[in-house]
Amino acid sequence: MELGVTAIQLLPVGAFAGAHNWGYDGVLAFAPAASYGHPDELKDLVQTAHRKGLMVLLDLACHYFGPEGNYLSVPAPEFFSGRATGLAGRSIDVTRAVGREFVIHNALYWLEEFHLDGLRLNAALLQEHAGEVDLLAALADAVREGPGKHRYCHLLLGHDQRAARYLQWDDHSVPRHYEAVWNDAAQQAMQEVLTAASAGAAATARTLDQLGVFLSRGFAAAGSDCLLPTAFVTFLQDYARIGDRALGERLHQLTPARPLGAMVATSLLAPMPPALFMGEEFAAAQPFLYFCDFNPDLVKNMAINRRKSFAHLQGFRTTRTRARIPDPMEAATFQRCQLDWNSVSQSPHADWLYFYRRLLAVRQREICPRLAGMHEEAVRYTLIGERGLSIRWTLGDDSVLTLLANYGVVPLEGLQRPAGTVLWAEPSEADPALTQGRLLPWSVVWLLRVVA
């Protein structure tokens, strides 16, 4: 609560083979993994979070079974689509009624039995085949008519541009099916801006244009139905972006502090709800690596194959340099990913935590109360030269929120300061510079004009 977050989202917790796993190789979709603790302990986690004013959401991945321990495929092979090959595992055949019912009842199970506050569903459940029952719509209806009748249940989707049709809201207040979708497109644009910063360069005009699009109207294509900005979850880092890197580095280990601070200020104060990856808020030193605990006979070449997959990247083109990539099967790989909470009180981790707390406090105080009633078309963005970006949102109470940002290495000159009170300037000297018509290198200024 002191950080300013409102919810915790768990990776899949269904039982899997071995002692540790990302959670996407589950084999018992109705049983929490024993290595995490007893089911009652998961219930206690949820209730403890509720007492602290936090919601708990779950990433639902029950449609996919891992490559080891899937004994359900023996008596019921027709329940699955395709055949297992190597580490690919198998997916439930959701074109069949029994497969769809399995997914729907699994969603209801976690919400009802553990009193979770919501679910994030994988976009792989989207169906495009004519004549099939729409699984995602049916699941949402079951939740709204089940546990959602007595309490609010949040339903989110993983990134997929086809997901837009599930994100319409009635009267801008009640979602018909799903509230929001994770906006990988915005993350990609922000990452490209920061990649340029790491190379000592400015982002291209194309990247800034994409960032403007994805922060203003999500990933909705031009000419398509507009969606509320709050229908897109923004994030700078997640388990996949970090874990898919050879060494599992976090952004603060790859990007200079000033550009990263500017981008954090961009993402946390935009109207779109932001998400943080564990430890991001205090620049955790621990990596997040790919780890698993399968039968060694099943994965005897896993480390070799994983290392070869990075051979095309600079820095990993020789056997010696690739040897630095951790073996997913080694217990030490998993242990390296466990956060060191003692570091939170030490610099620079304490400094980053203070930075995130102050930003989220501004968001909670000045922005969140003004979002209700916001309309889809009430947002405009423009590029400032080749390095700057301006976005203006008209919020639900008709106040105007403006972002001015320079994601380049030289100042932007000749600007006119918009009307409004400065909510945040990153760095702090960006505010007086803007008064003089200048936007400093790698700086962000947020302004709010309240309509009386």
UniProtKB/TrEMBL annotation:
<dbReference type="GO" id="GO:0016798">
    <property type="term" value="F:hydrolase activity, acting on glycosyl bonds"/>
</dbReference>
<keyword id="KW-0119">Carbohydrate metabolism</keyword>
<protein>
    <submittedName>
        <fullName>DUF3459 domain-containing protein</fullName>
    </submittedName>
</protein>
<dbReference type="InterPro" id="IPR022567">
    <property type="entry name" value="DUF3459"/>
</dbReference>
<feature type="domain" description="DUF3459">
    <location>
        <begin position="379"/>
        <end position="446"/>
    </location>
</feature>
<dbReference type="InterPro" id="IPR044901">
    <property type="entry name" value="Trehalose_TreZ_E-set_sf"/>
</dbReference>
<dbReference type="InterPro" id="IPR017853">
    <property type="entry name" value="GH"/>
</dbReference>
<dbReference type="Pfam" id="PF11941">
    <property type="entry name" value="DUF3459"/>
</dbReference>
